[in-house]
Structure formats: C-alpha cells, structure tokens
Amino acid sequence: MQKLPRFQQIKTYIEERIASKTWPAGHKVPTEAELCEQFGVSRMTVNKAIRDLTNQGLLERTPRIGTFVCHRKAESPLMDIRNIAEEVTSRGQQYHSEIVILEAQTASEEVAVRLGVMTHAEIFYSEIVHYADSLPIQVEQRWVNPKYAPNYLSQDYSHLTPNQYLSENCPLSAVEHTVEAIVAPAAIASLLKMEKTVPCLLLHRRTWSQDNLISAALLYHPGNRYKLSALTSTER
C-alpha cells in the first residue's frame, strides 16, 4: 500500500488527536519547528498540513501566540434574531463582552440612509466584541435612533446585550438582513483575532418596532469560528 504524502501524514496525526480529544478544543498544538523535528520534514511540508487544517476549521492560528485546536463553530439561525449571549450559554460556553465604543455621534450621509434619519442628526453608536469562552466570535457595530431608545447609552452592556435591551423596550415587528463574505478590515480582524487569510462573514441587519426603524447593525464573524444556518430564531 502506497504511503501517504508526508504533509498528509502530519494532518492525519493531528486529526486523530483532535477526534480522540487527546487534544481538546483550545489545546495548543506543537510548533511548526517541533513538528518538523518530529516528522523529519521541511517547514514547508508542516506549514501545508497546518494551513489545510486551518482552512478546514480544525485549527486556528493566533499571531505571535501559536496554533490551537478550534472550539466548535458558533452557529446562529439566519432567518431569525437571537440574543448572542443566549446562543453562547446554550452551547455550554461562557459568554462575555468588551465595549469598544459607546457614544452619541452625528450621522454621516451613509449612516443617515442606513438608519432613516437626517444627515447630521444625533444618533447613538455602540461597538461591542462578543466572546464564547476566550474567543471573540462577533464584532457588533450598531447605530440606534435616540427617538425610540433614549436610554440606550446609559445601559451596562457588560451585563446585557443591545439585543436584550432593545427587544425589551422596542418589541421587534420586522427585520431586514443580508449576508456577505468579505476580507475583514484590519481593525475588525484585530478585534476578532483573525488572520488576514481567514474569510469574514458580515451580516447587515436593520430592525423595526411598530413600523419605526429602530436600529441598524453590522455583525462581523470569523468564518472559521462561526456559521449561519437557515433555521428560524431573536440577535437584533
């Protein structure tokens, strides 16, 4: 029987350890130099094996830190809106968030069109990173019409999500969303701890309450840690 190529042997070695949970999610795999020495191969051969497994979503590279076994991909229903904190905890993971920006702004022309307000009108803006365990799985950029959520900026978003607050105060009546795969802007890639080569899923979302356009959001997800399903579900 013909031997597998050396890079495939390395892939199989790693895949078997992940499947048997010898290397559980979050486990740091040996460095490329260590694998080169273990298998007696070139750095290029090891790099191909690691790159293939990263593209398959089994491994994740964190610049200047190392390569780790991926956690199970987070999944969000595409046709519904769901609180991301509930999504994470329902999978047995720990949820937390980090607030990047929470402030009043003047609407640019682009934001005014997106939110249905006049250019230069005052709007509220939040930018929050959502985590599953220690990994960031979503950057949420949200613009809110102050007319319908006047207390939006005074909420403690380390203890509740914008979705939760808006759902309780402006019950959802309609939603519009589109999804696209993009190359993540540098700032977003940094917040999500993504490599430049990893695709980014961007969900555009606008929500209404009683025919009033309440908020518009851009939700960025690392493609190797997140997927959107066609099942129905309440991230606002």
Structural notes for this entry:
The strands form 3 sheets. A 6-stranded antiparallel β-sheet has the order 4-5-6-9-8-7. A two-stranded antiparallel ribbon has the order 1-2. The protein has helices spanning 6-19, 32-39, 43-55, 84-90, 109-115, 162-169, 186-192, and strands at 59-62, 66-69, 74-77, 95-106, 122-132, 135-144, 174-182, 200-209, 212-222, 226-229. The longest helix has 14 residues, at 6-19. With 236 residues, it is α+β, with helices and mostly antiparallel strands. The chain has 7 helices and 10 strands. Mean pLDDT is 86; it is low at 230-236. Strand 8 and strand 9 (212-222) form a beta hairpin. The relative contact order is 0.15.
Map the helices and strands.
Elements: H1 6-19, H2 32-39, H3 43-55, E1 59-62, E2 66-69, E3 74-77, H4 84-90, E4 95-106, H5 109-115, E5 122-132, E6 135-144, H6 162-169, E7 174-182, H7 186-192, E8 200-209, E9 212-222, E10 226-229
Parallel strand pairs: 3-10
Antiparallel strand pairs: 1-2, 4-5, 5-6, 6-9, 7-8, 8-9
